[in-house]
Structure formats: structure tokens, C-alpha cells
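[Primary structure, fold]
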Amino acid sequence: MRLEFLKRLCEAPGVPGAEEPVRELFQAEVAALVDEIKTDALGNLLLHKKGPGPRVLLDAHLDEVGFMVAGFEGPFLRVVPLGGMESRLVYGQRLLVWGRRKVTAVVASRPPHLGKEEKAPAIEEMLLDTGLPESELRGVVAVGDPVTFPPFFEETSEAVWAKALDDRVGLFVMAEALKRANPRVDLYLSASVQEETGLRGAQALAQALAVEVVVALEGTLASDLPGTPAHERLACCGQGPELRLSDARFLADRHLTLGLAALAEKHQIPHQVVVKKKGGTNASVLQVAGGAVRAAALSVPVRYLHAPVSLAYKKDIAAAIELVVAFLEHPEDVLAYRWTYPA
């Protein structure tokens, strides 16, 4: 499995509301594989590969958690978060401000010599230090400019370290499955916007589409560090993609989700079925916002989600691609599956 495309996706900037670089990369990669391409007014990219069978949507989101410049305080910047982040993970970090040119900034931190701080301040209370005088800073940065963690991508023999694996890994899985599969469905693909700020892109998509089945492709929280209580271990790296039956916003279509699990077992694809009350994906909106739709979420476990750098295992990414391909080529095996109460 070659990861050059994943590298380009992860290194591109794309905060909510400013996802254009990522959308352009994704569209260029898959344009020759589809029959129709549309972009809506919100920025969602919708692709259609015509085929027989049920109307199926695969969705992955373009945006990453980040920040937006909110104002100046002398030679310093104030920002607001775009998406959910813990302030302690941001404090003291290097960031990139995407103004008239790229500007490096560091989140101002208190030196330990002055005594320990009780806790990191809220992100809105933090100051960004660019090392530029105020007059020069105001010439290259404006209120509203996006701010991201700096690009990062490295491979080990088993894993990938990168910025923005949530959800560039979902986009990569979708693109690779499209390249490999011979779909037996009428296939729609959405590269959606503003997931990290309230699933906004998916809400617009759901009202514009008339599909029968949705599978959201995501990077999900891997809670498998040593010391984690057994009941808090949800998705674990190295055990295949997560098929969730629930999260904080979502009750999956039980038959569809367990049908995907049965397909994975049939093809000996590693996977893990998870029940949790944490997190959320576009599946929760796509399931109901445009009328009742069968929906599932298929996610690659990612450690250190919404942090400057996160980690995913290559074999989990490969298994996710394999399972999506199997679904597209054998949809009847999944869609006909029915769970029942025992007699």
C-alpha cells in the first residue's frame, strides 16, 4: 500500500470553512474514476459513479481541527478554536498562520522558572507569538485567517504519524476503495465540509441526496494506552476498522453494521464491533436529516485524535480499504443481513 496520497492529504491545510486545498487534492485524485462531479455552495464535493443496484453514499470529511485569527493584541494574535481540542494539547505548540504568506507562531507559554501554572488557559485566552513587530504582522495577517498545526507525516514499519488523520485517513480509504473496486451499486461519494464544527456539511448533503445506504468513513478515537481500564477500551489500534453500533449522537442501522461485520468475517478481514457513548460522525446526520436512511460508520482507529500529531496502523488502514471494496462488490451480502431476537 503506497501512502503518497495520504501524505499529501495530511500535509494540506483545511480548517472548517476553508477546506479548498484538500478538496482540490481529492478531486484531482479521483476525477477520472467517476461520471459526475459537483460542488455545492457550502463547499461539499459530491461525486457519482453510475452503476446498478442500490444507491449508496460513502462519506468522509475534508476538514481538520484548527483555529481562526480573532484579533491582535500588540504584536500577538488571539484565535478561536475550530473543532474540539483540549487546551493543554495546544499550549506551547508551534502553529502556522495562513495569511498573505505563511507565518510561524508559537502559543505563548509560561516558563517553568516562574512557577507551575495550575492548568493551561482556554484557547481563546492564549496568545500567539509570531516574533514579528505589530506593524509587519498586521501587513501579512488579517482577522479570519486560518491557523493550523504544522504539516507532519512520517512512517514506521507498522504505523503512520501525521497531522489531521481525522479525517484524511477516511478520504484516503474512500479514494483507494474507489480505485480498486468494481462496484455493484449506484455509488455516490461525498468529501464533506465543516464536520468538526457541528456536522454542517453533512446536513446540507442529506437534504440534497436521495440515497438508500450511507457509510461514513472516519478516523476514530483509539483508547488503548497502557493503564486504560478495560471498560474504557473502545477501538484499539492493530485490530482492524471499527464498526460502531452507537456513539454519543448515533444509533447505527444494526442490520447494516452487523452485515458489514459478517462480510468482514467471511473475507477474513480484521475488524472490531464497538458500542460507545462518545464521539460522533456525519453518519448521525446523514441517517435522518433527509429522511430515513440506513447508516453505518466504518472507522480507522487513531491514537491522539485532535492533537498536533496522531497515529494510525497501516494494517488497520489496509483492512478498512479491503472491507469497503468487499461491500461495494458484494452489497447483497450486507444489505440482506438481518439480526433477530432469539426465539
Remarks:
- The chain has ten helices and 17 strands.
